[in-house]
UniProtKB/TrEMBL annotation:
Annotated protein name in UniProt: Uncharacterized protein
Phylogenetic classification of the source organism: Eukaryota, Metazoa, Ecdysozoa, Arthropoda, Hexapoda
Signal sequence coordinates: 1-16
The UniProt record lists the keyword Signal: yes
Family label: Belongs to the TO family.
Organism encoding this protein: Ignelater luminosus
Protein's UniProt keywords contain Plastid: no
Amino acid sequence: MKQAVILLFVCVFVAGKLPSEFKRCKREIKNFKACLKDAIEDAFPKLDNGIPSLKLPPLEPLSIPRITIGEGKSPTVLTYTNYKLYGVRATKIKEIDVNFTSTTFGLRLETFTPETRTEAHYNVKGTTLALPIEGDGNCTVILYDLKTKLSIQGDTFEKEGKKYLKVKEFTIDLTPGKVTYNFANLFNGNERLGQEMNRLLNENWKEIYDEVDDDFNQALQIVFQDYANKIFTQVPYDELF
Protein backbone atom coordinates (compact mmCIF):
# COMPACT_ATOMS: atom_id res chain seq x y z
CA MET A 1 0.00 0.00 0.00
CA LYS A 2 2.53 2.15 0.83
CA GLN A 3 4.73 1.85 -2.30
CA ALA A 4 2.21 3.93 -4.17
CA VAL A 5 3.98 7.00 -2.83
CA ILE A 6 6.81 6.10 -5.21
CA LEU A 7 4.91 7.88 -7.97
CA LEU A 8 5.18 11.02 -5.89
CA PHE A 9 8.95 10.53 -5.67
CA VAL A 10 9.25 10.13 -9.43
CA CYS A 11 7.61 13.52 -9.73
CA VAL A 12 9.84 15.38 -7.29
CA PHE A 13 13.09 13.76 -8.47
CA VAL A 14 12.90 15.37 -11.86
CA ALA A 15 11.15 18.61 -10.97
CA GLY A 16 13.12 21.84 -10.98
CA LYS A 17 11.95 22.71 -7.46
CA LEU A 18 13.56 19.66 -5.89
CA PRO A 19 15.81 20.58 -2.94
CA SER A 20 19.52 20.27 -3.70
CA GLU A 21 20.12 17.29 -1.39
CA PHE A 22 18.01 15.04 -3.62
CA LYS A 23 19.50 13.17 -6.55
CA ARG A 24 18.33 14.25 -9.99
CA CYS A 25 17.77 12.32 -13.22
CA LYS A 26 17.30 13.51 -16.79
CA ARG A 27 15.33 11.28 -19.12
CA GLU A 28 17.80 11.93 -21.95
CA ILE A 29 20.65 10.13 -20.16
CA LYS A 30 21.49 6.59 -21.23
CA ASN A 31 21.09 5.04 -17.77
CA PHE A 32 17.89 6.93 -16.86
CA LYS A 33 16.11 3.92 -15.31
CA ALA A 34 19.08 3.02 -13.11
CA CYS A 35 19.45 6.65 -12.09
CA LEU A 36 15.76 6.92 -11.22
CA LYS A 37 15.86 3.70 -9.18
CA ASP A 38 18.81 4.98 -7.13
CA ALA A 39 17.23 8.41 -6.72
CA ILE A 40 13.95 7.00 -5.40
CA GLU A 41 15.65 4.73 -2.88
CA ASP A 42 17.96 7.55 -1.76
CA ALA A 43 14.97 9.83 -1.20
CA PHE A 44 13.01 7.57 1.15
CA PRO A 45 14.83 8.54 4.38
CA LYS A 46 15.14 12.16 3.23
CA LEU A 47 11.37 12.45 3.00
CA ASP A 48 10.72 11.55 6.64
CA ASN A 49 9.59 15.13 7.28
CA GLY A 50 8.19 15.81 3.82
CA ILE A 51 9.10 18.82 1.69
CA PRO A 52 7.17 21.89 2.87
CA SER A 53 8.12 23.95 -0.20
CA LEU A 54 6.36 21.37 -2.40
CA LYS A 55 3.56 20.78 0.11
CA LEU A 56 4.58 17.14 0.36
CA PRO A 57 3.52 15.50 3.64
CA PRO A 58 5.89 13.47 5.84
CA LEU A 59 6.69 9.95 4.69
CA GLU A 60 7.40 8.59 8.16
CA PRO A 61 4.66 8.11 9.03
CA LEU A 62 2.44 8.49 5.99
CA SER A 63 -1.00 9.66 7.19
CA ILE A 64 -4.38 8.90 5.59
CA PRO A 65 -7.49 10.36 7.25
CA ARG A 66 -9.89 7.49 6.46
CA ILE A 67 -10.04 4.11 4.69
CA THR A 68 -13.23 2.02 4.49
CA ILE A 69 -13.17 -1.63 3.40
CA GLY A 70 -16.10 -3.86 2.51
CA GLU A 71 -18.90 -1.30 2.47
CA GLY A 72 -21.78 -2.42 0.24
CA LYS A 73 -20.19 -5.67 -0.90
CA SER A 74 -18.99 -7.61 2.13
CA PRO A 75 -20.57 -9.04 5.31
CA THR A 76 -17.93 -7.12 7.22
CA VAL A 77 -17.30 -3.38 7.12
CA LEU A 78 -13.95 -2.16 8.47
CA THR A 79 -13.15 1.52 8.74
CA TYR A 80 -9.76 2.95 9.64
CA THR A 81 -9.39 6.57 10.74
CA ASN A 82 -6.21 8.47 11.59
CA TYR A 83 -4.39 5.80 9.59
CA LYS A 84 -0.60 6.04 9.96
CA LEU A 85 1.81 3.91 7.96
CA TYR A 86 5.42 3.33 9.03
CA GLY A 87 8.26 1.57 7.21
CA VAL A 88 8.08 2.84 3.62
CA ARG A 89 11.53 4.44 4.03
CA ALA A 90 13.12 0.97 3.91
CA THR A 91 11.64 0.06 0.51
CA LYS A 92 13.97 -1.27 -2.19
CA ILE A 93 13.13 -1.29 -5.89
CA LYS A 94 13.64 -4.66 -7.58
CA GLU A 95 12.34 -3.80 -11.05
CA ILE A 96 11.57 -0.51 -12.78
CA ASP A 97 10.26 0.30 -16.23
CA VAL A 98 9.37 3.78 -17.52
CA ASN A 99 7.80 4.62 -20.88
CA PHE A 100 7.43 8.15 -22.27
CA THR A 101 5.82 9.56 -25.39
CA SER A 102 4.83 13.10 -26.24
CA THR A 103 1.30 12.41 -24.95
CA THR A 104 1.57 9.50 -22.48
CA PHE A 105 3.50 8.35 -19.44
CA GLY A 106 3.84 4.85 -17.98
CA LEU A 107 5.60 3.54 -14.88
CA ARG A 108 5.91 -0.02 -13.61
CA LEU A 109 7.64 -0.92 -10.35
CA GLU A 110 8.24 -4.05 -8.30
CA THR A 111 9.44 -3.34 -4.77
CA PHE A 112 10.29 -5.06 -1.51
CA THR A 113 9.75 -3.69 1.99
CA PRO A 114 10.96 -5.74 5.00
CA GLU A 115 8.21 -4.49 7.33
CA THR A 116 5.39 -1.95 7.32
CA ARG A 117 3.40 -1.10 10.43
CA THR A 118 -0.04 0.48 10.47
CA GLU A 119 -1.41 2.23 13.55
CA ALA A 120 -4.98 3.49 13.37
CA HIS A 121 -8.35 3.78 15.02
CA TYR A 122 -10.68 1.12 13.68
CA ASN A 123 -14.38 0.30 13.67
CA VAL A 124 -15.51 -3.12 12.51
CA LYS A 125 -18.80 -4.98 12.42
CA GLY A 126 -19.76 -8.16 10.59
CA THR A 127 -18.46 -11.70 10.31
CA THR A 128 -15.06 -13.23 9.64
CA LEU A 129 -14.01 -16.87 9.65
CA ALA A 130 -17.77 -17.58 9.92
CA LEU A 131 -17.78 -15.84 13.33
CA PRO A 132 -19.25 -12.48 14.39
CA ILE A 133 -16.79 -9.66 14.93
CA GLU A 134 -17.43 -6.21 16.38
CA GLY A 135 -15.17 -3.59 17.87
CA ASP A 136 -14.08 0.01 18.05
CA GLY A 137 -10.63 1.07 19.23
CA ASN A 138 -6.97 1.21 18.32
CA CYS A 139 -5.22 -1.36 16.18
CA THR A 140 -1.81 -2.32 14.86
CA VAL A 141 -1.33 -4.29 11.65
CA ILE A 142 2.16 -5.36 10.53
CA LEU A 143 3.01 -6.65 7.06
CA TYR A 144 6.30 -8.54 6.74
CA ASP A 145 8.38 -9.18 3.61
CA LEU A 146 6.03 -7.07 1.52
CA LYS A 147 6.25 -7.37 -2.27
CA THR A 148 4.44 -4.69 -4.25
CA LYS A 149 3.63 -4.34 -7.93
CA LEU A 150 2.71 -0.83 -9.00
CA SER A 151 1.54 0.35 -12.42
CA ILE A 152 0.65 3.91 -13.45
CA GLN A 153 -0.58 5.23 -16.78
CA GLY A 154 -1.12 8.91 -17.56
CA ASP A 155 -2.00 11.21 -20.44
CA THR A 156 -0.99 14.77 -21.13
CA PHE A 157 -3.38 17.72 -21.49
CA GLU A 158 -3.02 21.39 -22.36
CA LYS A 159 -3.58 24.23 -19.89
CA GLU A 160 -2.72 27.87 -20.51
CA GLY A 161 -0.38 26.93 -23.34
CA LYS A 162 1.55 24.32 -21.35
CA LYS A 163 1.42 20.55 -21.25
CA TYR A 164 0.53 18.75 -18.00
CA LEU A 165 0.09 15.12 -16.99
CA LYS A 166 -2.98 13.48 -15.48
CA VAL A 167 -2.87 9.93 -14.08
CA LYS A 168 -5.72 7.90 -15.57
CA GLU A 169 -4.91 4.39 -14.31
CA PHE A 170 -3.26 3.46 -11.05
CA THR A 171 -3.03 -0.16 -9.86
CA ILE A 172 -1.42 -1.65 -6.77
CA ASP A 173 -0.92 -5.31 -5.87
CA LEU A 174 0.44 -6.09 -2.40
CA THR A 175 1.74 -9.53 -1.43
CA PRO A 176 2.94 -9.84 2.18
CA GLY A 177 4.92 -12.81 3.42
CA LYS A 178 3.12 -12.62 6.76
CA VAL A 179 0.62 -10.36 8.53
CA THR A 180 -0.01 -9.86 12.26
CA TYR A 181 -3.09 -8.18 13.73
CA ASN A 182 -3.77 -6.61 17.11
CA PHE A 183 -7.24 -5.08 17.54
CA ALA A 184 -7.91 -3.57 20.97
CA ASN A 185 -11.40 -3.31 22.51
CA LEU A 186 -13.08 -6.02 20.46
CA PHE A 187 -16.56 -7.03 21.65
CA ASN A 188 -16.97 -3.95 23.85
CA GLY A 189 -13.76 -4.69 25.72
CA ASN A 190 -14.45 -8.34 26.53
CA GLU A 191 -10.86 -9.42 27.14
CA ARG A 192 -11.40 -13.16 26.70
CA LEU A 193 -13.30 -12.82 23.42
CA GLY A 194 -10.90 -10.17 22.16
CA GLN A 195 -7.83 -12.30 22.81
CA GLU A 196 -9.45 -15.30 21.15
CA MET A 197 -10.42 -13.31 18.04
CA ASN A 198 -6.93 -11.81 17.71
CA ARG A 199 -5.50 -15.31 18.01
CA LEU A 200 -7.78 -16.58 15.24
CA LEU A 201 -6.97 -13.60 13.02
CA ASN A 202 -3.24 -14.21 13.37
CA GLU A 203 -3.46 -17.98 12.92
CA ASN A 204 -5.48 -17.43 9.73
CA TRP A 205 -3.75 -14.26 8.59
CA LYS A 206 -3.59 -15.19 4.89
CA GLU A 207 -7.29 -15.97 4.64
CA ILE A 208 -8.12 -12.73 6.46
CA TYR A 209 -5.80 -10.68 4.27
CA ASP A 210 -7.18 -12.24 1.09
CA GLU A 211 -10.69 -11.22 2.19
CA VAL A 212 -9.78 -7.52 2.30
CA ASP A 213 -6.98 -7.41 -0.28
CA ASP A 214 -8.98 -6.18 -3.28
CA ASP A 215 -10.88 -3.50 -1.36
CA PHE A 216 -7.73 -2.35 0.39
CA ASN A 217 -5.80 -2.06 -2.87
CA GLN A 218 -8.67 -0.14 -4.48
CA ALA A 219 -8.86 2.25 -1.54
CA LEU A 220 -5.14 2.95 -1.79
CA GLN A 221 -5.32 3.37 -5.55
CA ILE A 222 -7.92 6.12 -5.16
CA VAL A 223 -5.96 7.86 -2.41
CA PHE A 224 -2.65 7.87 -4.26
CA GLN A 225 -4.02 8.63 -7.71
CA ASP A 226 -5.63 11.74 -6.30
CA TYR A 227 -2.44 12.51 -4.36
CA ALA A 228 -0.25 12.21 -7.45
CA ASN A 229 -2.59 14.29 -9.61
CA LYS A 230 -2.41 17.16 -7.16
CA ILE A 231 1.23 17.48 -8.26
CA PHE A 232 1.14 16.37 -11.90
CA THR A 233 -1.72 18.71 -12.82
CA GLN A 234 0.15 21.72 -11.42
CA VAL A 235 3.71 21.13 -12.66
CA PRO A 236 4.25 21.24 -16.46
CA TYR A 237 5.08 17.88 -18.04
CA ASP A 238 8.28 19.14 -19.67
CA GLU A 239 9.56 20.29 -16.27
CA LEU A 240 8.91 16.86 -14.77
CA PHE A 241 10.56 14.65 -17.40
